[in-house]
């Protein structure tokens, strides 16, 4: 009997272990399959597609997303990873099948609430004691909540070292729809030289189409890999141009919310149109925030988190551009190639504004300037140095640090100023670049400007040929190469006005023709000796075709001002 048990016992143990292994394998396999299907559904934007099937579905989705926007961000127990996250699956929300871009980090069990911090209490008492005036004439921006060692903070978050302070500005921001080819974790990534982030609005369809048909054209970026993405939010229900913050009234200009007003009666119809545009072009990143002028800071933080979490770490540089500006591809490439990869990764540059006065709201009930900020929001009289939002460049190392720091820096509405506060917290002095243009940029483009106002680019740049060929002397020998023959074509290239007058229709040209005609009639009755003396005795050669102001003509052609004749 004992012998039988000695033989059977190992067999029973092996059989039991096999069953346990099979059950464990099946469970792990099911979990893996579940995670994979969820991961794939996020990458394929399944939730967004379901939400935009009908008006009712859209309203339900918005309600679900809004209910997830907890005022204090994620619970402490939800912070389970580092930033940038080690796995994209850790970004998938625990209730909705979409990416949640609230910052993930490790925290100690007794991590301090920022509102209970002694430095925050000092900040509050300071602002409450100030009744009016410009504000503090000091440079101690580190007191602006939160007061932390940000260099140590960045290192700790990157390495998963538990933090002793909870973040003050880590609201949940969902990526409702991801672009298909830019920083999509489900696809084999093409590592671009550059990613261009175009700050658009949900209603700005015309501006997006303009960008796609102009500077985004592939042939303008020869021997250079660039990707483009438009960042938008969702339409704001029942939006008006009147807003109230801290009991102060703010009013948007009519032109700034004209598109919103145009679609006021049927937001769903426009949302459906936006979904169709996203499906057609696959270049929209849609966030869960309401797309209003006063949510630009939220849009900025959302963009930093998405870039740092989902884009390949080897992408060195990002350019941020407003949708009322165009890029000049040749100049962008020239600037890029004059920098090393390390220089690009640590770049923070644009049109720098140095210590501008903080605009204060009216305290008498009148409507305040839209950029006004109360003393309680920002008690200093001057902003730290910041970059104008029209166009600026940030390296990948800088974007990562900004994404982390934004969770620990109190929110203000003015996005340019908020970026300057982040720079100050991180001890970054942004560079001022002459190649960033804010005005009419005919001369600027020729001197290397990488951007130009949309209103000016229509007049200056011929997007069908080359962004810099429509001038003389040409800025590149390539501009002279004939597309039909392997040879130089030395015909003069310059822009013509739409209503340019044909030279044979000019009054002076017709006058010249009349003189020639009259002389021809005389020729019929003159002998040879008289013919030699025939001609006008006038020295007014200006009527010789073409009668133009040649000084102005040469200036216009050099600087690409459309010629009228």
Automatic annotation (TrEMBL):
The molecular function terms of the Gene Ontology recorded here are:
hexosyltransferase activity; UDP-glycosyltransferase activity
| Database matches in InterPro entries | Glyco_trans_31
Chief localization class?
Golgi
Q: Which GO terms describe its biological process?
A: protein O-linked glycosylation
| Pfam families, sorted | Galactosyl_T
Keyword vocabulary terms for this entry = Glycosyltransferase, Golgi apparatus, Membrane, Signal-anchor, Transferase, Transmembrane, Transmembrane helix
Residue stretches spanning the membrane: 6-25
Localization:
Golgi apparatus membrane
Its family remark reads: Belongs to the glycosyltransferase 31 family.
Name of the featured protein: Hexosyltransferase
Provenance organism: Schistosoma mekongi
The lineage, from the top, is: Eukaryota, Metazoa, Spiralia, Lophotrochozoa, Platyhelminthes
